[in-house]
Each structure stands twice: as C-alpha cells, then as structure tokens.
Design brief:
There is one protein chain. This protein is an alpha/beta fold. Helices cover 35% and strands 11% of the residues. It has one domain: Alpha-Beta Barrel (TIM Barrel). The protein has an eight-stranded parallel β-barrel, surrounded by four helices. A two-stranded antiparallel ribbon has the order 2-3. Helix 10 packs parallel to helix 11.
C-alpha cells in the first residue's frame, strides 16, 4: 500500500521551455565502469527486435492509452526485505495479467522493491532468484499482450529505504554511498534485461523525497534527483544490446506534478534521442482520492482543477513529442456502513472522478495508470479492483470503475 502518503498537488509552476542539459552532480565522481568481484548475473534470453521508434511514436502507434499498477505485490516488504505476499496479496500470476488486458488496459506498471536482495558494497550483487522472479512476472505481462514498466519502488521509501535522499544530502560520503549503490543496482537490472524488446520499459525510481512529499524547501534534493536520473540513463545505456535505445521513464522530485513542471527538473542528456518518458502521480484532492475524509467530488471547481493541472503537461512535453504517463492515479473505495445514502453518493462520485480524470488525461495526451493495491476492505487505502487470483473484477462496483476508466480514454 502507499503508506503514509500525503500527496498534495500544489499550484502548478509553469515553465517556458524543456531543459535538457545536465547539472553538476553534488559531490565526487561516480565510476560507471566498476568491475565487480562477483560477476553480475546474466540472462540468456534471446535478443528481441526493437521498433526503432521514438517513445512518442511508440505510444501513438501501439495505442497506449491507459495502464494499471500491480501494487502491493513485488513492491511489498517486511523487516527490510522485499516480500511479494507480505502485504496481503497472492503472488502475481498469468490470470491477473490476462484479466487486466481483457479489461482494456494497454500496459502494466510493476512496482518492484529490491531491498533485502542486494548484497554488500562495493558489488551490491542482486540475488539471482529475485531477478528470475521479476523476469517471470514481466514475461507474464508480455504474454498477455501488455507493455510493462519496472522500477525501484520502496527502496526509496523516505523512512526505511536505502535510496535515501536525506542521507545523500547530508554529506559527500552519504551521497557517494547511496549513488554508487543506485548505479550498481541499475547496471545489474539493465544487464539482466538487455535483450528484452521495447515492450519492457525502465523507470528510475518512485516518489523520492525527504519526508515532506515535495512541500517546503526541496533544494538541493532536486539537483540530486537530476543526478540520479542522469546516472540511471548512463547506467542503462552502458549495458548495450537493446538497452542502447530502451524507453526510460524519468520522474521529478517526489514524482510530484509541480516539481515535474518546474525549470529545475532537467531531463538528462541521452545518447538515444527521443526515448524518454516523463511521469508524475495524481490523487488530488488527497482527502477524496486517498484519505476517505471527503465523500463529495464533482463541482465545477473540482473539474476545472483537474483540467488546469493537466494542461501544462501538454504544452511542456506532449507538444514537443515527449510522452507523459500519470504513473499512479485513482481514488479509493469509501465505506459508510451507517449511512447508506452517503456511501452510494461516494461511489457515484468515485465513478465520476475516474471518468473525468482519465478523460482529461486523454484530452491532453497523457497516459493514466491506475493504482491498484489489491485492498477492498479494512482501514487502509481501498484501491483494489481485480481479484488477484482470477484476474476478474472483484465486484460490480469495481467493474464499473474499470469501465469508467477505459471508456474515458477510448
């Protein structure tokens, strides 16, 4: 689940151009040519054909309009170690992938936490069995006819992950330690998947922040994010084969819309032209989208805010042929057992919200990816729409939510 999320979309800061030159890294010199003492794990998967298209052309020609997150599975963790079933979901299976595709989704984002499977410095060797499991899940998506995004997810959790921007910001030693590990982890992931086709997309990291979710002073953390995106790009490209031109998803600070539109967010220089995808997350308003403290939504003000939040991404990125995904979005199921009328209204508002948000995303050329954490009951965030074992909608309400999203983008 998206624990302790306080995601607030602040007023958008417009930028007049899309910066693309690198910034100076914070400290030190990160060596991308390190030779590990323990050889990195190889994957003998055969080299697949690549389309040769830019990311914008690929999204357009493949008609990638809407996606789905398989959350709280490979990203789940317990006691500092990734554990696929520790947050209540079964292991990902082919039936789920097939069901997601049948429902009308075009791609899946597969959040992955790697902590607990990474060895000590300086090799930071990734456990081969875990790489195999990630590869199996990615292939399930491919078999179902879905494009797939894999990332570093709760490794960057501000309170428990090793990819700590707080640590990196404190000292040269902290910066170098975290950044070297980040580079080594991506070198290994990229090398393992280097022969997979361009249906497999890499995303550098998820919602990296210092605990304030992008509020308050964010410099020089924003420079560190730019550094990490640059090192990510270089690490992936350096592994060769299909990674020389693989599509890469680049987030801003906290994967926050405001910071992704600001001038200090800089897309890294890339040896492969036109292969970058920008991402941000959207659950606004937080009280309705996540917290379940507001059951009403749908006023003119509510709808205008969505339109105003999305429009700058079109002018800043889409209009210059850089695809944008809303890597996570959605609204929770709200339960009011003692007030049936209020619960019914909240459910209708949820349908209206999903239809409007996904429709406005489509209108602006953005690709929304719904966050599903598998949860349908309890006190947590109830984003679950699919039965994770069968791949079928878990209720009539969930089926209606799915249809609302799909119909809004088709």
């Amino acid at each position: 689940m998206k624990m302790f999320l306080i995601f607030l979309l602040l007023p958008v800061l417009l930028a007049v151009s899309c910066p693309s030159s690198p910034v100076s890294q914070q400290w030190g010199d990160i060596n991308l040519s390190y030779t590990p003492k323990i050889p990195d794990t190889k994957n003998n998967y055969p080299l697949e054909a690549m389309s040769g298209k830019t990311a914008f052309e690929y999204f357009r020609d493949e008609k990638l309009l809407v996606g789905f997150n398989i959350g709280n599975s490979l990203d789940a963790f317990s006691n500092g170690r990734a554990n696929e079933t520790s947050w209540g979901n079964p292991m990902i299976n082919q039936a789920l992938m097939d069901g997601v595709k049948k429902a009308g989704f075009d791609l899946v984002r597969i959040p992955i936490t790697w902590m607990g499977y990474i060895g000590p410095a300086p090799d930071y060797h990734i456990d081969e069995n875990y790489l195999v499991r990630v590869a199996d899940v990615a292939q399930m998506a491919n078999k179902a006819g879905l494009k797939a995004i894999i990332n570093l997810h709760h490794d960057g959790a501000h309170d428990s992950g090793w990819l700590s921007i707080k640590k990196a910001n404190v000292s040269k030693e902290g910066y170098n330690e975290v950044t070297k590990k980040f580079v080594r982890v991506w070198q290994q992931i990229a090398a393992y998947f280097r022969n997979h086709g361009d249906w497999l997309i890499f995303e550098s990291m998820n919602e990296i922040h210092d605990g304030n979710w992008g509020n308050g002073n964010v410099w020089p953390q924003t420079d560190i994010i730019n550094d990490w995106n640059r090192f990510f790009t270089q690490a992936v490209r350096g592994t060769g084969a299909n990674n020389a031109s693989r599509y890469l998803v680049i987030p801003g600070y906290a994967t926050n819309a405001r910071h992704t539109l600001a001038n200090y967010f800089i897309l890294p220089q890339d040896s492969a032209a036109g292969k970058q995808i920008v991402t941000f997350h959207y659950y606004d308003p937080y009280e309705f989208g996540i917290a379940s403290t507001r059951s009403d939504w749908g006023s003119s003000s509510d709808k205008n805010k969505v339109a105003n939040d999305f429009a700058p991404f079109k002018s800043r990125y889409i209009d210059i042929n850089i695809p944008v995904i809303i890597g996570e979005c959605g609204a929770v199921k709200q339960l009011y057992p003692n007030d049936r009328a209020k619960e019914d209204k909240a459910r209708q508002n949820r349908l209206d919200y999903l239809s409007w948000v996904f429709g406005k995303a489509r209108e602006n050329g953005l690709v929304p990816i719904y966050w599903d954490n598998g949860a349908t009951s309890g006190n947590g965030e109830k984003f679950g729409l699919f039965n994770r074992r069968t791949g079928q909608p878990n209720s009539e309400e969930s089926e209606a939510c799915i249809k609302a999203m799909i119909n809004a983008v088709r």
